[in-house]
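Consider a typical record:
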Amino acid sequence: MSGAREPRPLPKPVRWLVSLLAVMAVVALGMLTLRPVTTDGDAEASLKSTIQGKETPVKDGKPTGAADRWQGLRAAGIPTPGTWSRQTGMTVFTRGSGIDTVKPESYYGKQIAGDPGPIDTALASLDTILDPGISQDEWHNAYTAVLKEDASGQIQVMGGAPRYWWAGRKYTPDMMCSPSSAHTLMLAYDTGSCTADNTWQGEEHAAIQTIQYYQPGSTSFPVPDDEGSSTTNPQTLAARSYSTVAVPMDDGIWHITVYCPANPDMLLDRNADELGITAWQADRLGAGVQGLADPWRMTGIGTRQRPCRTVEIAVGGQLPYWFTGGTT
C-alpha cells in the first residue's frame, strides 16, 4: 500500500458552494444554447415594430405608455385612428336575404372592428414618414419601404422630398373646400361640410375621407390577365380592389392609394375576419349567422386575413398614378 494520505472530503459548506456553481454553469450554458439567432429578417421586423410602435398600449386613440405610436400624425396635426377611421357603411347579410334585398335603414352603416381597412392603412403609412422621433437612418429605411406591391406586383417610387419638407406639413381641413382642389370632386369625395367661403365646418377627422367610387374612364389600374377578357370594363373590375384616401394638408390634398387584395364581395364578421362566403352566396350562411359587406362593393375592403396595403402617396399638386383625367 502506498504511504500517501487519502484526500479528505471538502467541508460541507464548500461542497454546497461547488454544487451551486455547477448548477449555475449548466443553466447559463442552456440559456446560451437556446438563445435564438437574430437574422436580418428579425432585425428588420424589430425595426418595423420600433418605428410603428406596435407594442404601445393605446386607449381612446391616445398612447398610455411612454412611447407614442402616432408621433408622426400628431406632429402634423392629423387626427389619429380610432372608431371614426374603421370600415363602416356595411350591410348585414343573412341566409335568404338575397344580394339585392333592400335592408331596413338600421341595417346599413354597420362598422367592423380592427384596423386592416383603407383609412387606418393610409394613416399608419403617413405616421411612419412623418415621425420626428426616429433616427435619420430609421426614417430613410421606413421612407423607402413604406410603399408595397399593387395588384400587378409593381411598387411605386416615393418622391425625393427631403425629410424636413415632410416635417413642415400641417393638416388643413379647409383645403378640402379649396377651389384649387377641384380634382377631388372627380374622385367623388364628400364636400358637403364646406361653407360658401370654402371653410370646413365638420369634425376635423371627417375631412379625411375614402373615395366613394372611381369615375368611369378616369383610371388606369393594372389589370390581371383573367379580367382582360371580361364583358365588363376591366378597369371597373380592377378598381374594386383599390381605395384612395384624401388627407387635406397645407400644400393641397394628399391622395393615399391602397390596394386591398381581399375579394370585395367577401362577407366578414364584426372582427373583419373573412367568412369564406361572398355576398352572392348569402344562402350558404348558417342559421342566425350574419355577414357584413359593403352593399355597393365598388372599392376595396380590408380583412384580417388580407389587410389593405399602401401603394402610393401623392402629395399636394400631384395626381395619383392611376388617374387619367378621363370623364367627370
Observations:
- Confidence is low (pLDDT under 50) at residues 1-10, 12-18, 20-66.
- Residues 79-314 form one domain.
- The chain is about 25% helix and 15% strand.
- The longest strand covers residues 242-249.
